[in-house]
Amino acid sequence: MTFPAIPTGRTLSGDAFPLTPNPHPATDTERAALMTDPVFGKVFTDHMARATWSGGSWGDRGVVPLEPIPMHPGAAVLHYSQQVFEGLKAYRHADGSIHLFRPTMNAERMIDSAYRLAMPPLPVDDFLAACAALVQADQRWVPEADGAALYLRPYLMATETSLLVQPSDTYDLVVTASPVGAYMGGGGGVSIWVSRGYHRANDGGTGEAKTGGNYAASMLPQQQAKENGCGQVLFLDAKEDRYVEELGGMNLMVVLGDGSVATPRLSGTILPGITRDSVMTLLADAGRPVRERDIEIDEIREGVASGAIVELFAVGTAAVVTPIGELRSDDFALTVGDGKAGPVGSWVKKELTDIQYGRTADDHGWLIRVV
Ligand SMILES: Cc1ncc(COP(=O)(O)O)c(C=O)c1O
């Protein structure tokens, strides 16, 4: 599938999603209080974008006041989880302009996810216009603080009232917006629990789609991680319980002692992360191509223990670049390097965020201006 090129240097139009203003938006004082150190995904702006699919096409596009979504108790999404979603951020630059980072990739990934869930694709132009219109309506909610951003959550869900296990004939698109700070605080590394026995995805399953069911399956191992003092789970492949795949919401990067970087290859069970792709591009630009390959958990265990692996970090929209300080499981506990951020992860985090926040040239044309 080919998509229209987005002209650079222009502000993306949200006109396709006309605004019905919220008659009772948060006051400046209320908004300032809500935006002070918001918990990730707990604060929402005054509006949401929406559209509906029925009769074989998308319509009813608009940005409307944020409100509960009325739903029949028999709506298909509530029973069979026919749902896909995305996550991307809007960044405020020093001149006040606001930019989305590679939103076309999110739009394309949502089309791929929708295909796997037998849902109608939302055209790229609609995805972009919905995000642009929402940010334009709620631009006062885009934080100024370094590391903070407005997190957009577009999703599609099956709305037909039916308990039959079959694709719905009606769907809703909704996009919400949440001001967020840094997902994982602190300069130290996060502790990772290596999940044994529980897996996130199987061959032929939905691992590379961004659908709620994958995350539902990750709740129990995530809970185990917490009980073991860890912040995140690392999943191994379901077939052999041997190869590292990804974390609950981030992709994994491995830095070896010779300076090379490796990441698990996209096998169909891993989400093709946009941060993963961006980090790989930035490292390759700097003469450090990232090898996509199978990586055994034993290679990581032995490498971390021997010093052959010097750094591990996780990458994703929410967490940006997060150093991994410790790896734990039922039968081992290992500190990675000195347990803190390493030089490669720190370097790439700065490169990436400098582009996102407009502090350096966007040579790859990754930003799309919306305000
Ligand atoms: C399971 C999973 N892997 C990886 C990622 C990272 O993807 P991205 O960089 O596109 O946010 C995410 C977050 O969206 C995720 O949920």
From TrEMBL:
PANTHER family, sorted: BRANCHED-CHAIN-AMINO-ACID AMINOTRANSFERASE, SUBGROUP IIII AMINOTRANSFERASE
E.C. designation(s): 2.6.1.42
Catalysis performed (reactions): L-leucine + 2-oxoglutarate = 4-methyl-2-oxopentanoate + L-glutamate; L-valine + 2-oxoglutarate = 3-methyl-2-oxobutanoate + L-glutamate; L-isoleucine + 2-oxoglutarate = (S)-3-methyl-2-oxopentanoate + L-glutamate
Family (UniProt): Belongs to the class-IV pyridoxal-phosphate-dependent aminotransferase family.
Organism of provenance: Demequina capsici
Keywords: Amino-acid biosynthesis, Aminotransferase, Branched-chain amino acid biosynthesis, Pyridoxal phosphate, Transferase
Claim: Transferase is one of the keywords in the record: yes
A GO biological-process term: amino acid biosynthetic process
CDD domains, per database record: BCAT_beta_family
Cofactor(s), by name: pyridoxal 5'-phosphate
Pathway noted in the entry: Amino-acid biosynthesis; L-leucine biosynthesis; L-leucine from 3-methyl-2-oxobutanoate: step 4/4; Amino-acid biosynthesis; L-isoleucine biosynthesis; L-isoleucine from 2-oxobutanoate: step 4/4; Amino-acid biosynthesis; L-valine biosynthesis; L-valine from pyruvate: step 4/4
Name of the protein: branched-chain-amino-acid transaminase
Pfam families for this protein: Aminotran_4
List of residues that carry N6-(pyridoxal phosphate)lysine: 210
GO molecular function, one term: branched-chain-amino-acid transaminase activity
EC category name: transferase
Domain of life from the UniProt record: Bacteria
